[in-house]
Specification:
heterodimer, A: 290 residues, alpha/beta, 2 domains, 8-stranded mixed sheet, B: 257 residues, mainly alpha, transmembrane (chain B), cell membrane (chain B), ABC_MlaE_roteobac (chain B), cell inner membrane (chain B), transmembrane helix (chain B)
């Protein structure tokens, strides 16, 4: 009898444990954990482009979650997305002229709707509408401004050396291409820290064929693509004199941290603006920008 | 000529096995109402295949989660995306590793012992004795073990997943220093309860449980009544279950996605 009781108790314990794990998985690690729904009210917003925004994505003010995206539909007869936001009742004092913007949390993160308060004294009510919205801007579009192309120069006809000082070389490595107008004209020969000026001295070997580069040209460190390697871009100046072996480029632009860039974009996006939904209708063509 | 006929023989034998297995499934299902009289036997089998497998399932889940966390962290670090490790960890455990690894472990831990037990009953004529005493061996022996496997697998899989998430959390957050809040919030943002947990974990593991216990019971029930036959049947259980799990996994994933 005691044996029989022990397996019955053990089986019961096993079943309880199993269902407890299921409950834990379902409530703590899934999207249900985010969708606690108290009393809420609905507000509409229309976006020209919602990017990867999904239903149940968070709605945030100052980074704090105040609700979620309830539904996404195409507005009838128009090429804009009709997004219904469900916002907790306790956050009922949102000015009517607030701006709804679609942001991305982190580089690989999901998108969410951020709301910047306006200055109006009246608040949006249930069934109300955010007139001012700012759509998602594809990351590719931002980054395409910094993307180069092409491979390394062949350097058959010999090279000449040019120096430049950078305050930050990022992850630039020896052998990285030096490009002008996106075409490789040489490579990075050495990277050394300057013990006196406390910056990085980079030496380039530039192909002799390209000996007409003005001596007031600027050198900048760019990244090819989102996770690509870094390269040096030469932006030609207007001086009549050409660069010679051993010259130094005075105008330099150091490696930009991707975080800085995106930070800038996010900040300018939140403060600069109030595009109407119809304002930037069909700007979503990243490949057309190259 | 003789090799060709032998090959045909193998094909026909395999087809015959599959057909016999399907018919056996129908007999088991038909015996479910009769086996309600032996509900205590089902509970005993649930204890045997489920509760006794807990240790191996939980330990393996912990280590699978830990190694997955470690691997994901280092791969994602290349792209500077370690914040996505919670998402990647939970989705890979829920959708694939949880059900499949639990199924393979379950086939090795519980399937083999079911086959050996029934095979030994067959070899020592206990099953024939039951028939003599007008006890339906399908309802008393086969169906309880089948039902126990069907019920135990989803529960074991849930525990495997929970331990896997915990192991991944230990490695990525406590050891490698991924932010705790990022880990959990990215996970909760991307795991869907229907798509990933009900479809991915519950349905898949229930299907695997049914297939494994069907194969185990069938192999035991139809074994040659010798010690060698029991040995072969046990081996065949593991081989057939493993192949069935991985093949069924592909089909189920294609359907449930």
């Amino acid at each position: 009898m005691s044996q029989r009781k022990s397996f019955a108790v053990g089986t019961g314990l096993f079943i309880v444990l199993g269902f407890a794990s299921l409950a834990y998985l379902a409530t703590q690690t899934s999207s249900i954990a985010n969708s606690h729904q108290g009393a809420a009210y609905r507000v509409d917003a229309q976006f020209a482009n919602i990017g990867q925004l999904k239903e149940r994505a968070p709605v945030k003010v100052a980074g704090v979650r105040i609700g979620q995206v309830q539904s996404i539909a195409l507005a009838p007869g128009k090429d804009v997305a009709d997004v219904t936001l469900s916002i907790d009742k306790q956050y009922s004092q949102i000015p009517v002229d607030s701006v709804a913007t679609i942001y991305t949390s982190g580089l690989l993160g999901d998108q969410y709707v951020g709301i910047q308060f306006g200055g109006a004294k009246t608040y949006v009510a249930d069934g109300g509408h955010f007139g001012l919205t700012k759509s998602t801007q594809p990351l590719e579009e931002m980054l395409s401004k910094f993307i180069g192309g092409g491979g390394a120069a062949d350097a058959i006809g010999g090279t000449y050396a040019v120096k430049a000082n950078f305050t930050n070389v990022g992850t630039l490595s020896v052998g990285a291409p030096v490009k002008m107008a996106g075409v490789a004209i040489g490579s990075v020969a050495s990277i050394k820290a300057d013990p006196v000026k406390l910056d990085a001295t980079v030496t380039f070997d530039i192909d002799k064929r390209y000996n007409q580069i003005p001596d007031d040209s600027a050198a900048a460190i760019f990244t090819s693509g989102l996770i690509g390697s870094q390269y040096v871009a030469i932006q030609p100046g207007g001086s009549p004199n050409s660069l010679k072996d051993g010259d130094q480029l005075v105008l330099t632009q150091s490696a930009m941290q991707l975080e800085d860039l995106i930070g800038k974009f996010l900040v300018s996006g939140s403060s600069g603006g109030s595009n109407n939904a119809s304002g930037n209708g069909s700007s979503n063509t990243p490949t057309g920008k190259h | 000529m003789s090799s060709q006929s032998r090959r045909e023989n193998v094909v026909i034998q395999t087809l015959g096995q599959i057909g016999a297995c399907g018919l056996f499934l129908l007999r088991i299902l038909a015996a479910i109402p009769r086996s309600m009289r032996h509900v205590r036997e089902t509970v005993r089998q649930l204890w045997f295949v489920g509760a006794m497998s807990l240790t191996i399932i939980m330990v393996c889940g912990l280590f699978v989660g830990m190694v997955l966390g470690l691997q994901l962290y280092h791969v994602l670090a290349i792209f500077g995306g370690t914040s996505a490790s919670g998402t990647a960890l939970s989705l890979s455990i829920y959708r694939e590793l949880g059900p499949v690894v639990t199924g393979l472990l379950f086939a090795g831990r519980a399937g083999t012992s079911v086959t050996a037990e029934i095979g030994l009953m067959r070899a020592t004529d206990q099953i024939a004795a039951m028939e003599m005493m007008a006890v339906d061996p399908i309802a008393y022996v086969a169906t309880p073990r089948f039902l126990a496997g069907l019920i135990a697998m989803p529960l074991l899989c849930c525990m495997f997943c929970a331990m896997g998430i915990f192991g991944g959390y230990l490695v990525t957050v406590d050891w490698l220093g991924v932010d705790n809040g990022t880990f959990w919030s990215n996970m909760t943002a991307n795991v869907d309860v229907w798509q990933d947990i009900i479809n991915g974990v519950i349905w898949k593991s229930a299907a695997f449980g049914a297939v494994i216990s069907l194969i185990a019971v069938f192999q035991g029930y139809t074994t040659a009544p010798t010690s060698e036959g029991v040995a072969y049947a046990t081996t065949r259980t593991v081989v057939a279950s493993s192949i069935a799990i991985l093949a069924l996994d592909f089909v189920l994933t294609a359907f449930l996605m």
